[in-house]
Amino acid sequence: MFLSRIVLRDLDSIDSPAASMASSKKLVTRDEWERKLRDVKIRKEDMNRLVMNFLVTEGFVDAADKFRVESGTQPDIDLATITDRMEVKRAVQSGNVQEAIEKINDLNPTILDTNPQLYFHLQQQKLIELIRAGKINEALEFAQEELAPRGEENQVFLEEIEKTVALLVFEDIKNCPYGELLDVSQRLKTASEVNAAILTSQSHEKDPKLPSLLKMLIWTQNQLDEKAAYPRINNFSTAALEDPAI
Amino acid sequence: MELDSLREAFDRVIEKRASSSAKAQEVIDQIVSEVEQAITKMQMMNTDSMGTADHSSILAELKAKLNELAPLNQLEGCQKELNVALSKYLKLLEKSFSPDISKAYRNVDFEASTINSIIANHFYRQGLFDLGDSFVRECGESDGAHLKLQFQEMYSILEAMQVRNLQPALSWAAKNHDQLLQNGSMLELKLHQLQFVEILTKGSRDEALKYARTHLVPFASLHKAEIQKLMACLLWADRLDQSPYAEFMSSTHWEKLAEELTHQFCSLLGQSSESPLGVAVSAGFQGLPTLLKLTTVMAAKKQEWQAMKQLPVPIDIGPEFQYHSVFVCPVLREQSSDENPPMLMPCGHVVSKQSIMKLSKSSSRPFKCPYCPSEAVASQCKQLHF
């Protein structure tokens, strides 16, 4: 935010004296750009807190603990709760849905009660795991007792049930129109939903701040593109400045 | 309108007949009663050993009472009322209906064997196989039995469906799989759907799942939505009638499917799904009032309508009897006919032959298209056939 504000202000001041050049883009050289960047001061403590926020939100417990020791930055939540959350996430990602449900209820019994959609998706994932394991009768019994009543109440749930149960009609369930339900990505999707719900229940943002900051950088660059040619960052993993096109 | 008057007159006739009948019965009862009384008196007198003079007095008394009753006068009154009502009804009938519809009949020479063949196939088509056989035998036709076997097959399939047996229909659909696909018909999938629901509700969930894996999978890629709903039915196997899919159990599916099968069956035979004889008779019924009116007008004008090739008035019998396209010439504003067919000009526009004759001065000169700047000569124009 500060960065974009400073840059925009400087560009405005540059444009003002030369009114006749207002219609064309202002060219900023790499040397000039780098000099302006050096004038922007960011405190190390703020950077450390950003990194800690990312590690904590994404559940990198060991890394967060080491980072705490080395940098002296304190996490804003108890790291033990991260461990619990990651165990839940790992359980879902490995297909142990029942274990995940039990752990969620241990953490906070109201999470699933206040999230019917999350609970439905966990039940759906459990059905998927039963089908994957080839336990057809068990899958049908489970779906009949647990999922069918929810489908009667909610049309969207009903449609998801239809897709999931349709897996049963195929002998070769890997290569069928609904095969993506059996992908690891389906587990990851459910796991992410669980993670977000737990974070919300713990009164924390469910998304880390660092990606938000990167998104803001992208937005700011798009705004600047309309006014000036300047050294742009295209590769965010290296953050290398590209020379502007003349 | 007219029918209301007819109904009223008919009801009045019924009313008068009923009252007349009741009156007659009453009069007869009175006469019988008087005669029985006289007989009783005579029998009592016989026991007293009195003379025949007393019998005479009883008879005289009976005669006087019967004269007093005046039964004929009573019956005459009722009978007259009935006759008046009946007479009015007959007049109304004659006014409302044409008593002689044969006036609208034109003597067209049909080939007897063609008519017989049409009638025989009509019987077979209606499932009246014994009647059809008798007809074929009596009129000496042997070709008429050509479609009998096919319609027997169709009716055996339909009869099986009426008792919830889909096996003959499924066999037929599988045998004609490619043609049904070409027709864009979903009959085969629908039959399997019905069978699946039957097995699910009357058999077991496991059998239904096996059936789906065998017979529904081939349709899965093109009909995902249908397959999804059918598989979800497995979760409500024991109470499908209370599930979101209760309508799958509706008996209307069987009726619609029987209609669809009839339609496709006839289509694959190259036949219409309606009986040609039935269609002709229905169309005739609809056209009859106009024709009767026409004959009356023609008679008044001393014209012979039997000889004319084309009717002077249009006969509208509804869109369900429209089988061919109709071309109306934009120049003459007349419908095309055999003598005046539609002609396609080189520019692509169409007018009637008479228009071209007129425009080209009897084929002698090039003429301009009424629609566009193109010029043509009569020999370049081709007759259109719909």
TrEMBL record, chain A:
InterPro entries xrefs: CRA_dom, CTLH/CRA, CTLH_C, LisH, Ubq-SigPath_Reg
Record's GO cellular component terms: cytoplasm; nucleus
PROSITE patterns: CTLH, LISH
GO biological process, one term: proteasome-mediated ubiquitin-dependent protein catabolic process
Pfam families attached to this UniProt entry: CTLH (PF10607), LisH (PF08513)
Segments forming domain CTLH: 81-138
Protein name in UniProt: Expressed protein
Organism listed in the record: Oryza sativa subsp. japonica
TrEMBL record, chain B:
Keywords associated with the record: Cytoplasm, Metal-binding, Zinc, Zinc-finger
Keyword set includes Glycosyltransferase: no
Location of this chain's protein in the cell: Cytoplasm
InterPro entries (UniProt xref): CRA_dom, CTLH/CRA, CTLH_C, Fyv10_fam, LisH, Rmd5_dRing, ZF_RING_GID, Znf-RING_euk
Main subcellular location of this protein, as a coarse class: cytoplasm
PANTHER family: GH10162P (PTHR12170:SF3), MACROPHAGE ERYTHROBLAST ATTACHER-RELATED (PTHR12170)
Descriptive protein name: RING-Gid-type domain-containing protein
Native source organism of the sequence: Oryza nivara
Lineage: Eukaryota, Viridiplantae, Streptophyta, Embryophyta, Tracheophyta
